[in-house]
Amino acid sequence: MNQATVIGREAVTKQGFMHPVDVDANISRLYFDLAGAATDDAIYMLLTITEPSHILYGSDYPYVAESALIGAKKALEGRLAKHGLNPGDIFSDNAKLLFK
């Protein structure tokens, strides 16, 4: 964020037009989807901003061929395990908890 943005935000906050935003608190309430190309870097970065329970997997089926999804799922299972994540949590259990 540049200096002008910071000064502008402080000015409108002091005038009562805006309330301070707790970015970290807002991000902590979000859930993230690993559908698509979830690289090691993407998983690592997610783990720096959220808890494992806020990471889900959406397959994009039927818009992605089943054969492609099966291969991608196997590769993702390995990447998740490498980061200490339980694939079962990511593929289903976290969604069950979220959607009850």
Describe the structure.
With about 100 residues, the chain is mainly α. It has one domain (about 20-100). About 60% of the residues lie in helices and about 5% in strands. The protein is built from five helices and two strands, in the order ααβαβαα. Strands 1-2 form a two-stranded parallel ribbon. α3 links the parallel β1 (about 30-35) and β2. The protein is elongated and about 55 Å long. The protein starts with a helix and ends with a helix.
Quick take:
The chain has helices at residues 3-14, 23-28, 40-49, 66-82, 87-99; strands spanning 32-33, 55-56. With 100 residues, the chain is mainly alpha-helical. Strand 1, helix 3 and strand 2 (55-56) form a beta-alpha-beta unit.
Which features would summarize this protein structure in a list?
100 residues, two-stranded parallel sheet, elongated
Q: Kindly give the count of domains.
A: 1
Radius of gyration: 18 Å
The rough form would be described as: elongated
First-residue to last-residue Cα separation: 38 Å
Helix fraction by DSSP (H/I, runs of at least 4): 55-70%
Q: Give the beta-strand count.
A: 2
Total helices: the number is 5
The portion of residues forming beta strands comes to under 5%
Structural class: mainly alpha
Whole-number average pLDDT? 87
Strand order of the largest sheet: 1-2
H/E series, N to C? Answer: HHEHEHH
List the helices and strands and how they pair.
Elements: H1 3-14, H2 23-28, E1 32-33, H3 40-49, E2 55-56, H4 66-82, H5 87-99
Parallel strand pairs: 1-2
